[in-house]
Each structure stands twice: as C-alpha cells, then as structure tokens.
Amino acid sequence: MKLSDDQIREGLERLTDWEWDPEAPDIHRTVRLPDFLAAMALVNEIAQAAEQAGHHPDIDIRYNRVRLSLCTHAVGALTENDMALAARIDELVPSRP
Asked: SS3 of 68, please?
C-alpha cells in the first residue's frame, strides 16, 4: 500500500541519511566507503538482505560511493517494504569514525 507524504516523513525520521523529493517516487541514500572493495562488500551484504526481503534497491556504484534508491515499482510509490529495507540497509552500513 502506498505511503502518504506524512508516513514517508515519519519513516525518514527513523532512518539515517535517506533523502526524499516529494516529486519523486523513491527515497535514496549515498554511502561513501574507504575504497572500491569496501563498496563492493557492502553491496554484496545489501544484495543478501534484499534477497531475503524479496525487495530490491536500485544500486549505483562509483568507486567508493554507493547510491541506493528504493521504490516499490509495482505500485510506483513508496511502501512500508521500502522503509523496512532502508532500515535494514542502515544496519549494514559501517559506522563512520
């Protein structure tokens, strides 16, 4: 079920560094890591979590930066599945020093 704007704002308050443009159907986050291998390791962990959830983010890797985008494509909007996977991804992202 599609989330309302208020539900999206409330969900973002519980997440780390995710952004949302009310004109777009997704939330996104960019993570900077020490190097390419660290970026790939994170992507592999996210892939496992996404597969377990049966819900998959769009992922763009640029050397040590990983951009993640979540949207429930079948609905064309954000759903609770997106917020749940974003929270799981937040658990996988290494803490900053």
From this structure: strand
Write down the H helix ranges in the chain: 5-13, 36-53, 80-92
pTM, two decimal places: 0.94
What mean pLDDT value characterizes the chain?
Answer: 96
Residue 27, strand partner residues:
20, 70
- Could you report the per-residue pLDDT of 12-64, keeping only the tens digit for each? 999 999 999 999 999 999 999 999 999 999 999 999 999 999 999 999 999 99
What is the rounded distance in angstroms from the CA atom of residue 30 to the CA atom of residue 60? 9
What is the band of 95 on the pLDDT scale with cuts at 50, 70, 90? Answer: confident
Q: Is 27 exposed, middle or buried (0-12, 13-18, 19+ CB in 10 A)?
A: buried
Residue 63 sits at the vertex; the CA angle it makes with 41 and 47, to the nearest 5 degrees, is 35
